[in-house]
Each structure stands twice: as C-alpha cells, then as structure tokens.
Amino acid sequence: MIFIIKPCKTYQKILVLILPFALLFLCYLICAFAFKYISLPPCYIHHFTGLYCPGCGATRAVYALVNGDILLSLRQNAFLAVGIVIVLILYIQFVLRAFGKKINTLINMQGFIWIMFALLIVYTILRNIFPTLAPVEITY
User: Fold this and answer.
1) What's the pLDDT tens digit per position in 53-84?
2) Fewer C-beta within 10 Å: the chain N or C terminus?
3) How close are the terminal C-alpha atoms of the chain, in Å?
C-alpha cells in the first residue's frame, strides 16, 4: 500500500523547524534556574532499596548537560543519551514528513519498544552489578 504524504503549508514548515529549538532553549533556561535555586529530592527507589533504577542519575545527567559536561552526563545515566538520540531521529522524521518525504528507520520497526525495554532491563541489572555504571555525586 502506498501512502502519499502531502507537504505542509509554509507556516507549518517554519513552525516545525523553529518551535522545537525555542522549546529546547526554554527547557535549558528552566533547568538552569531549577538546578541553581531548587533542591531536588533523591531517588526513592535507591534510598529505600539501595538499588539503582533505570532513571537514577538522570537528573544529574541533565544537570551535567546543562553545564556542558557531556562525558559526566553519560557517566550519570547513559540511557538518557539513547533517549535523546531517539527523540532526535523522531524529530528528523517529523521534519521530513512536513516537507513531503517519508523515511523508515529502526524506530518504525515493529518490536522496537520491546527491544528498548529489554535493553533498559539489561542496563538496570548491569549498573547494579558493576559500580562503574552507577551514577556518581556531582561536586560543582
């Protein structure tokens, strides 16, 4: 079955290109303010069980990204980088679709969510076995 994708109108194309970057800048400003003046709570799963959940270190990883430290961000939570890459690929697909082009990537593959879920479980198990995958305290 062939689907014909109609290109969007000009103002829609401009919104598709500009709006995400404006929202990203707004998120950057909010994060810079939040990390400077607001104390964020610890991970309750780690606090009560001593185990690192898949999201442990994600806040510190975003903090490191806001401050420009990419390696520390990867050290805090490497799966956050995977999520950022997936969102970037989805954005590229969205932009191309707005201009009338369609591409298929692994993200469109059936079962992609299950593969990512399995990788998330493996990552969670490994970060609790190997201390080098566990998040570290940030001293800024």
Assistant:
1) 988 888 888 888 888 889 999 999 999 989 99
2) N
3) 56
Pick out the chain residues at pLDDT < 70.
1-8, 139-140
Give the position of tokens 């969670």: 124
Phi (first) and psi of residue 35, to 5 degrees: -75, -20
Tell me the C-alpha distance between 140 and 33, whole Å.
15
Which residue, among 73, 65, 56, has the nearest Cα to 124 in the 3D structure? 56
Read off the amino acid at residue 62. Answer: V
pTM recorded for the entire structure: 0.76
| CA separation for the pair 83, 81 (Å, rounded) | 5
Residues 136, 57: Cα–Cα separation, whole Å: 8
Residue 70 identity:
I
Euclidean distance between CA atoms 117 and 54, whole angstroms: 11
What is the CB neighbour count within 10 angstroms for residue 125? Answer: 13
